[in-house]
Each structure stands twice: as structure tokens, then as C-alpha cells.
Amino acid sequence: MVTLNVSAAGRVSLARGLPITVTFADKKPEEVTVAEVKAAVAAKFPRLYPARQKLTVKGEKKALDDDVTLEDAGITDGAEVTVKDLGPQVGWRTVFLVEYAGPLIIHPLFYYNPGFWYGALVPHSLLQKTVYTLVLLHFIKRELETLFVHRFSHGTMPFFNIFKNSGHYWALSGVALAAAIYSPTYDEYSRYMRGSIRSDPRFIGACVTLWLFAEVSNLHTHLTLRSLRPAGTRQRAIPTGYGFDLVSFPNYFFEILSWVAIAAMTGSYAAWVFVGVSSYTMSIWALKKHKAYRRDFGNEYPKNRKAIIPFVI
């Protein structure tokens, strides 16, 4: 039998009955996981469901992973753990679906209603038609990957973060990009477009080729990452193969490359701002995860592999 004392870390309004004692009959510390402890707490305080809980060893700050056993966490029979309320949670899959839905809604609104936004008809140029198609295909791909390819190591995130995360896509690659690209500046008869390289089908075709290469490569790396994590687990392994021989996160690199293709095609300040912001954000993610790879795998991890930009970062 294993008995644990569970106390509150700070104010936990959904569990005013804390501290409590939870007991696991006929089990040893090596047989009880943190997830089971969370379930026991939730059984007494249903509104404090497991995803809202952060469990830590008494006196420590590091959260305990759900799949870790009490023995592996150094928790013995009769020990005390603390629980913190992380607030309302939302699934990562839901967050991604909402993020990518923004541009899929916003771009058609601007593309098909120029009179409302610009007060004039906009005879769409080849450039505008191409960008519209590429943007929709990109985010449709992201939605399908979210549904059928990605496997998430963390099930949820704080609910209110969905607004912060979605703002990046809805505002920058949604409103800002659509408002700039589908404006009269880029239409069929614009002085800015007439006789410029941006009206040359060969230049547009070259940019589309780069975009297609980046998108297919990005999908390939996502499929590689999926193959490393069996369904329902948080198992990690060293990724290898196409792209991974140069950087830890080629999926981020190819994502940046696809947006560089669109920015180069249009020359739009809005497109380049989105490239800059997204590149910075993904670089921060990549460097943090790259460091975690090196820490977790030690000497097994390739020493010459960069984080996101081959031979650079």
C-alpha cells in the first residue's frame, strides 16, 4: 500500500479541502504513476481535473511528468506532494486548429470583397491569384497535419494562451498579409506591377517551385517526427535522415523557407514582417529544444548539428 499527503501550492480555490491523503491499496511506489495521483486528486475535487494540476515534490518547483512513477521521482510511502492549479486548459490540437483557421477565413474575405476593403474593384493579377492559392494550401496542409500527423508531447496549455498564439497568425499572416497583397497595389493594372519582375510568370514560377520544395520537405520532416513517437506515448528518439543531418528542426527551417518564397515573390512589407517574427519565434523554440536534445542524449547526439539554420544557428 502507498499513502501520499497532498497539500496546496498557493491558493487552490477548486480544492478547498486540501490537504488530503490519497491511498493506493495493493500497490508499491514503483507501480504508481504521477498521472494516477492526479486522477486520485481529481476524484475528490472533480473541477480540478488532471490537466489543471501541477504536481511537485514538497519544497521543489519542477513539475512531475505524468508517466513518471513515484519511485523514479524519489517519492516514498508517506511523503508529501503539492498541487498547483494551472487554470483552465485547452488541448494543443485545438489550439493549432484555431490558429490556422484564421488565415483560411481572413484571406477569402479580402480576396473576394475588394470593394468593401478598398472601395474599388481589384482585377486580380497572376501574383495575387498565386499568393492566394499558396496561402490557402499552406494552412489547409497545416490543419490536416494537426489532425492526422502531429503527436503532442503535452496534452494541454492554459486556455487564455489560445488568444496570444492565434493573434500571431490571425493578425500577421491573416489580416496584415491579406490587406496588403490583395490591394490595388498588386492588381493587374497597377503601375507597381506593370513591367516589373512580379508580373513575370517565370519569376512567379521560380518562387512557386521554391515554395513547393519547402512545403513538401516540411511535410517529410513532420512524418519523420511522427514515426519516432508511438501513439499515446511521450517517447523521444534522435531524429535522422533528410534535413535532420544538418539541423535539429528542419521542419522550422522549411517553414521559414516557404514564407521567404512568398515574401520574395511579393516584396510586401507585411510578408517580410511575418517572416521576421515567425523566424525569430521558431529560432527561440529550436534553440531551447536543441539544448534539451543535447542534455537528454549527451554524447549520442550529433555534435555538428545546428538547431534551425544549416551551418549557422
UniProtKB/TrEMBL annotation:
Record keywords, A-Z: Endoplasmic reticulum, Fatty acid biosynthesis, Fatty acid metabolism, Lipid biosynthesis, Lipid metabolism, Membrane, NADP, Oxidoreductase, Transmembrane, Transmembrane helix
Major localisation: endoplasmic reticulum
Gene3D superfamilies to which the protein is assigned, alphabetical: 1.20.120.1630, Phosphatidylinositol 3-kinase Catalytic Subunit, Chain A, domain 1
Keyword Ribosomal protein: no
Membrane-protein topology: Multi-pass membrane protein
Domain Ubiquitin-like per the UniProt entry, residue ranges: 33-83
GO molecular function per UniProt: very-long-chain enoyl-CoA reductase activity
Name of a matching Pfam family: Steroid_dh
PROSITE patterns per UniProt: S5A_REDUCTASE (PS50244), UBIQUITIN_2 (PS50053)
UniProt pathway annotation: Lipid metabolism; fatty acid biosynthesis
EC number: 1.3.1.93
UniProt keyword Transmembrane helix present: yes
GO cellular component: endoplasmic reticulum membrane
InterPro entries: 3-oxo-5_a-steroid_4-DH_C (IPR001104), SRD5A/TECR (IPR039357), TECR-like_N (IPR049127), Ubiquitin-like_dom (IPR000626), Ubiquitin-like_domsf (IPR029071)
Family: Belongs to the steroid 5-alpha reductase family.
Identification of the protein by name: very-long-chain enoyl-CoA reductase
Source organism of this protein record: Postia placenta MAD-698-R-SB12
